[in-house]
Every structure is written in C-alpha cells, then in structure tokens.
Amino acid sequence: MIKKRFLWALLFAALVMCGGAVYAQAPAAPEKAMVYNGESLKIQLTGMLWLEMVQNQWNAVNDTYQVWVNNQKLGVPASAFGIPNIPIKGALWGIQLPYPGALDRGSLIFDTRYSQIGLTITGPGFMGGYTFGRFETDFYGGFGTNSGVVSRQPVLRMRLAYAGIGWGGIDKNMYDVKLTFGQYYSLCTPILAMPTTLTPLPMFDKGVLFDWDQGILLSLIFGSPKAFLMIDADVSRVKSATDSAGYVTLGGAIPTGTVGTAPLYIGEGFGSNDERGPGEASMHPAFHGRIAFNLNPAPVFSMLLSVTGHFMKMHPQLAYANLATLTGFTFPYVKAVDVPSKSLGAQAKISIWIIGLQGAGWIGENMNTFTAQFNTGYRENVTGTKLLADKGRGGYAELNIQLVKVGIPLILWVHAGQEIKYNKNNIPYASATASATTFFYPLSAVGVLANSEFSGGLMWLLNQYFTLGYEFGQLDTKFKGVKGTSADFFHRMRATFVF
Known about the structure:
With 499 residues, the protein is mostly beta strands. The chain has a single domain (4-25, 48-94, 172-242, 277-498), classed as Porin. 6% of the residues lie in helices and 47% in strands. It is built from four helices and 28 strands. The chain has helices spanning 4-19, 101-104, 147-150, 321-327, and strands at 33-37, 42-58, 60-61, 68-69, 76-77, 86-88, 91-93, 96-97, 105-111, 116-122, 130-138, 157-168, 175-185, 212-224, 227-236, 286-298, 301-314, 317-320, 333-336, 339-352, 355-365, 378-380, 387-389, 391-402, 410-421, 448-461, 466-479, 486-498. The strands form six sheets. A 16-stranded antiparallel beta barrel has the order 2-10-11-12-13-14-15-16-17-20-21-24-25-26-27-28. A two-stranded antiparallel ribbon has the order 3-4. The longest helix is centred in the N-terminal third of the chain and has 16 residues, at 4-19. The radius of gyration is 25 Å and the shape is globular.
C-alpha cells in the first residue's frame, strides 16, 4: 500500500514552513514579449524552458510520465526457457514467469522535451468581428533514427496550429462567437479543470483523455465575466492510434493472381506514414462537444461545471482467429467493419479563497485514440464478424492550496486518479462449440485491468517567470489473471522558465 501519510506530512511541513515566511507580493504575470505590435496585427512570442528530473524505483512504461508499471509478477514466457505450455480447460495456456531483477530496475531521467515555443496572433477586423491565431510546438515529436541512442533527444512536434474568426466579447456584448480552423485541444480533454502537477501529461492513462483534434470548432459564450455559459462543438478528423495503422495480411492462402502476402486494403500500410488509417477509412468525421458553466462572483470564489462527449466510427480490419478455428479455415478470415468510439465525461472545479478542488471523470468505448485504453480498443467476437468495443472508465480528483493568493509563493497539492478497463477478455476457444484445443492462449503481460496513481507535491514561484517543484507518488497497475498489483514509487523535480 502507498504510504499516503508521507504525502500529508509533506504538505503539512510545507505549510509550517510557509507560516514563518515573510509575506510578499504574489508574483506578477510575465510581461508580454511582442514580436510585432502594429495597429492591425500583433504577434506575441510565448515559450517555456523545461527541465524534468524523474527517479523511478521500479520499471514503468515511459519513465518520464509513467503510463503503467511493467508486470512485476508475470512477464517472461516460460517457453523461452524450454518450459512447455500447459492445458487449462482444453486450451493451451502459456506460462509466464516474473521478470528478472534487471528488467524490474528503476531509472533516473533528465528530460527537456516538453520545452515549448509559440506565437499568439491578433489580426485585423473582419465584418465587425476580429481574427486570431495560435501556433505552438514542443519537442515530444518522437524518436531519432537510432532510438536506442537518441530516444530522449528532442524532436519537434506541433501542439496547436489554428486560426479563427470571432464576434462579440462577453466583457462588452454579453456574448462571444468563434469559429476556429486547425489543430486545438480536444473538447474531451479536461483543459478547464486540468490538475496541478509536474508531469507534462497529468493523469496520463489514469483519467485524462489527453489529445488534440484537427477540424472546425464552433464556440459560443453567453453571459458576463462573472457568470457565463460555454457551448463548443466540432467536426474533426477521425484518428485511430496511428496514421498508418498496420494492415492484416491474408496469410497462408493467397488469392489467385497475387504474389506473396496481400494487405486487406491496397494503399494502407506498406510502411508509409501518410496512408490512411482505420479512422480515416471510415469516411465519416468525428464529433466532439462540451457544455460548461462558469461562475465567478467574487475574487474568493469561482466554480466550473462541464459535460463533454464524443462520437465517431473507425473502420479497422482484423483477422478473425476464433472464426477461423471454429470453421476449420486454413487461414484467418479477414474483414474490416465499422466500430463506434464514444464517451461521456464530466469536469468540475471549485475555488474558495486559497483552497481548490477539481476533478474529472468519463466512461467510454473504444477509446484508444485518447491514449485512455491499454490495448487495441476493440476485439473480435467469438462467433461472428462483429468487432466488440473495449469499455473503460477513468477519473481523477485533486485538492490544491494556492498560497500565492495570500502572498506566499507556493502551491501545494495532493491528487489521485484511476482508470479501469472492464471489458471481458476473448473467450478461450475451448469455451466455444466445436472449438480446437491447440491455440496458444497466454496470460497477457500487458493486459491491464486497472491503473491508479496517488501523488502530491509543491511548486515554489521564485518570480513571475521561474518555478521550481517537487512531486512524490506511487503508481499501481493491476494485470488480468495476476494476483496483487505492480507498483512504482517515483520522485519528480522540475524547473521551468515561462515567458
């Protein structure tokens, strides 16, 4: 079990330390770095210099922002050591052994890839309204040509790239209407109630549906700065984990007139990074929506309530191994079908003086495009060609103390998040009528059922530009078919300079 008492002791010690601090003015906002400041066009330079130092006690998937802990109990196939598979209920199950100690070893990471650079653009008026734009990049774009050597070297990645037209402004007209074109934060990302944390992707795979979308976004705001309603809806590209999602070959039986193994979709795959994926092959757009209510009656109180959702279809292909086994096919039956992806979520945030509470939750199906599931997001039916969507749910909650509001340049927090995958595994072939009993059905080393995190930390605002922070926490991962959980304790320190 996590030593939660340590986290509360950390916050208590920080409060005691703050109690004796000399009250000072809270850091002012950074000055604007204007690249161009004309009458009808203004361009502001923004950015962040970031150094993150992370220590993991045990091996986790992605050491910098831990996605889940590697299976510490069952991870290496016993067949690799000459140990045969064993029959269980008529099917052959692969025995899994614990990872050797070297594979469980933790890490010490120094990472700068989340450093950012961007431009905020205010353009000339248009038909009684205004024009705007935003461009932002970081360096989390992937790996170099030799990932074993340069996997943590920065590669440029586009975060935001949009332009738009707007009319109104709630400060003067009690309404605001915007039409945005480009890449923006997904409406399912709880950007309005994002938890305070030191990791670049807070609650990643534990409750935050983190993503960007490319499309056309309509935003409506009605009310005043003290109380207003936000309605957002978009039509956007359907993503499906990867642009070039791997194609399925027909295997041993080659259709007449073909040579070698043939892909199901001619044009998809072949190692090309720009071919259409299963999302784009649906030939339909994705739809995202968000409704939020903001209440800000006084400086000491504010509240946000929001509901989000999305719906889209993917058209993935799959080799139906179960169907092939049941029918006696000598090669997998391959077919592409539509699989819906949908979610419903809620966000909330309340601030009373220096105390803040915020959180979000969601339920959904086939959510791999939001990096919120752990496998493909769908799986084959045992007896037919309908693909079954993986179901899951997640959420997080956070308590933060914003001492900057009383002149002490510290922010403290504790938060917890969890994601649960509650789909059923494929039924072993022995459970189906007339099934074969020779299929290798292993206990999966990556079949995550639940993933949770509990952590806390503090940030010290040296001035309006420079911040230091420390965070400590534990990540627990539960694997299917494995007793107990796999755990990783982590320490994170961060230094940032924002302008």
